[in-house]
Amino acid sequence: MELAYSESELVFRDEVRDWLTANVPTHPLPPPYTAEGVAAHREWEKALYTAGYSALHWPQEYGGGGADFMRQMLFDEEYHRAAAPQRLNRLALGLAGPTIIEFGTTEQKRRWLPGMLSCDELWCQGFSEPGAGSDLSAVRTRAVPDGDDFVLNGQKIWTSLSAFADWMFALVRTDPSQTRHRGLTYIVLPMDSAGIELRPIRQLHGEPGFSEVFFTDVRVPAKNVIGEIGDGWRVAMATLGYERGTGLGNHVRLSNDVRQLVDLAKRMGVADDPVHRNEIASRFAEAELFRRYMQHIASQLAAGNGVGSRSSLVKLYWSELDSRIQETALQILGPFAELAAPQNCADGAGFHRRYWHARASRIFAGTNEIQRNIIGERLLGLPREPR
Ligand SMILES: Cc1cc2nc3c(=O)[nH]c(=O)nc-3n(C[C@H](O)[C@H](O)[C@H](O)COP(=O)(O)OP(=O)(O)OC[C@H]3O[C@@H](n4cnc5c(N)ncnc54)[C@H](O)[C@@H]3O)c2cc1C
Predict the structure, then answer these.
(1) For residue 360, which atom of ligand 1 is closest to its CA?
(2) In this structure, are residues 227 and 186 in contact, taking their beta carbons and an 8 Å threshold?
(3) Do the beta carbons of residue 151 and residue 144 sit within 8 Å?
(4) The ligand 1 atom nearest the CA atom of 369
């Protein structure tokens, strides 16, 4: 059963389709970890913004579309269907922005939301530290009050997009007498502040994209705190909920990838192989289930209901499915999978990239082991894991 869209939603969908058909770049943009790639993605983001599509469900007073989640989902579905570029400012649009809308002051919303939408200001996420990944409450970066500022010392790691970011939203320890979830604060800092040093990290598949970020006596205005001082854990958990739970439209990308498996099997001459057929049919069934589940989530959000701990279910499901889809692609490629650009496969390198990215998706936004713990404890009522 498909979701019943209203007449006006279907008109809206047709408008979006037409716009994407006319505007999506015909060639893939250069990767967004070079200056050239970032500039090309910014231009694309500017086109989306000018057309009013940057963030449809954000409040209109800050430059958003003021639409409900169903329209946002319709847009995201069409966006993925059109194979449009990955959103460059996704950490702002998907994480920091919704958090500031929920917890920020009017002044903070006015200051930061418009620049996120237009992509004039790029954002990165400063949560993870060496020793504080899954156990995020072990954050040790210190922020000491000094006049109207906090002074930051410490280190973040695995900071995506940091080389080009204008702003970072970070979790820091403001009260060292408190441990774990208490005494943490959520703060926003300009990446060009004196005392910030970036050290790039190259990934397993050879691409750059991450940095370690070091803070030495970095002054950050206290007015950049989101929520209350010392209440950062609650704010950070909201961010993680947004990160895990509202990848609306992602299911279309996964369904597209399953369809590419069919094309790939035909090109490789193995479409009649029972093992490959079995695997492809299984991926199709799994992607269909996810699509229906995400439509249900969107209708819940549109009705004003939160996703809560179900965001862990969403994150676990899509990242595991993504991995299985890309593994199926490599199985279909057989021995050619070991070549960077296999024969009979126009997009051989693309499958490799997606395979490695899918492996990483089991880690980022909180590892899948952690999601299983959350599901066990909060959705199933199992006893807390031993600590
Ligand atoms: C592609 C990518 C992009 C990222 N981008 C960012 C970013 O922009 N900003 C940012 O702040 N971070 C980012 N991260 C970091 C990411 O959030 C962390 O890698 C993740 O939270 C895991 O932390 P860790 O690497 O310290 O692993 P650890 O926490 O050390 O975990 C190691 C292993 O132990 C398992 N484990 C740990 N604790 C438990 C437990 N209690 N029960 C069961 N198993 C457990 C984990 O599941 C994992 O398999 C990114 C990571 C990736 C891969």
Answers:
(1) 53
(2) yes
(3) yes
(4) 47
Question: Is residue 366 in contact with ligand 1, taking CB distance under 6 Å?
Answer: yes
pLDDT digits (tens, 9 = 90+) for 238-284: 999 988 876 655 888 899 999 999 999 999 999 999 999 999 999 99
- Domains 123-230 and 249-379 equal at CATH topology level: no
Of 45, 77, 121, 243, the active-site residue reads 243
* Residue 337 or 126, more confident: 126
CATH superfamily of 249-379: Butyryl-CoA Dehydrogenase, subunit A, domain 3 (1.20.140.10)
How far apart are the CA of 344 and the centre of ligand 1, in A?
Answer: 36
Residue 166 CA to residue 142 CA, distance in Å, equals 21
Q: Are strands 123-126 and 142-146 parallel, antiparallel or unpaired?
A: unpaired
127 close to ligand 1 (CB < 6 Angstrom) = yes
- Separation of alpha carbons 251 and 271, rounded Å: 24
SS3 content of the chain, % helix, strand, coil (to 5): 50, 15, 35
The ranges assigned to domains in the chain are 7-88, 123-230, 249-379
Domain 123-230 sits in CATH at: 2.40.110.10
Residue 121 catalytic? no
| pLDDT tens sequence across 41-93 | 999 999 999 999 999 999 999 999 999 888 888 899 899 999 899 999 999 99
Encode pLDDT of 364-375 as tens digits: 999 999 999 999
